[in-house]
Amino acid sequence: MIGITGSCGKTSATRFLDHALSGSLQGHGVHLFNGQGFVSKNILKVRRSDRYYVQEVSGHRPGFLATVMPLLKPTISIVTAVGQDHYTNFRSREATAQEKQTLVRVLPRKGVAILNFDDPFVRPMADVTNGRVIGYGLSADADLRASEISATWPGRLSFNVDYNGEKARVETRLAGEIWLSSALAAIAVGLDLETCAKRMATVEAVPGSMALYKTPAESWFINDTAKAPYWTIELACRTLLNAVSPRKTVVFGPFSDMGGGSSKKYRKAARGRWTLPIAWFLSVRSPVTWSAWSMAMLPVAWYVCLRFGKLPLFWLQINWKARSRWSRLTARRTLSVCLYRSKNRLPAGKRAAVSTAIAVFVIQDAAGQADQSALTSSSTCSTWPLGLVS
């Protein structure tokens, strides 16, 4: 049993590890469905013939992991990172780390704790486990260490990995250095490096997590709509900021669970882009509510955008012109800020879907027929991968 937790990277690490192991062993991994009810149902699917089982585990509130551990009973535990997700429940990274370390504290003496040594809140967890510790990262004392990293767009992530004197070059299809930690976590589980390198060469990104899409107009989209914590904005943008591309567009949706007002954080994000070659900075601010309507509309709008290269404005007018009023939409190339707000009385889920769709129309119109446009987004749908790349 392999359990994976962390403030970010755990879903991708679970997917990568499952992909790496499935080439040689029978078993399966479960990502996204990481609550107590899902874990219990998933474990019932494990068969005696399975050689491995990988389960992503949430730690979204204090004490939650303790309720899952009697079910999972991991022999290998992986902690990817400690950040400021679920701010309203923890209020500090120290409290978040206290919850995450439950996964390594319950390991038996023959168990293995695989820890991100580059994270100052994960590294001390080596002192609270009974099992063997394997550290990964860029640190000089990490057991599994990466070097000679290359991830500049339009290239993909590649790096050298070194473990106990054994070395291998890993070439992936993934965009950006943000994937490095999850990739190392998957490699650290124990297969030989050459086998892992071959499997990592064919793995795809989790939909909604820095996933790549190409439009008929030869523009590239990076769909990062699975989560939208404020503290990960710079990580997501780094891929775009370092990219070699004639035009770049950034769109931010609502930040999730950050506490306090959002206006200052949006301004800070905008100011942070001033010294970098970004052609447009778009901020789509609208309420987000779970609803079947909004979940249905977002992938439809996304499909139309991919299929036709831009989103027809009349498609929106037919549905909402008679029932809604829109505030002004401004886009100033010199200021590089476009802010859209909906002030109608439609349900919040509809406002989120419509404002996102209009943002994509504006972006596509602005991008024109650029050879390569890179776009990154913090989602209008903060916890579900069916988000419109905006």
Automatic annotation (TrEMBL):
One of its GO terms (molecular function) is ATP binding. It comes from the Bacteria. Residues 4-189 form the Mur ligase central domain. Keywords: ATP-binding, Ligase, Nucleotide-binding. This is Mur ligase central domain-containing protein. The lineage of its organism: Bacteria, Pseudomonadati, Pseudomonadota, Gammaproteobacteria, sulfur-oxidizing symbionts.
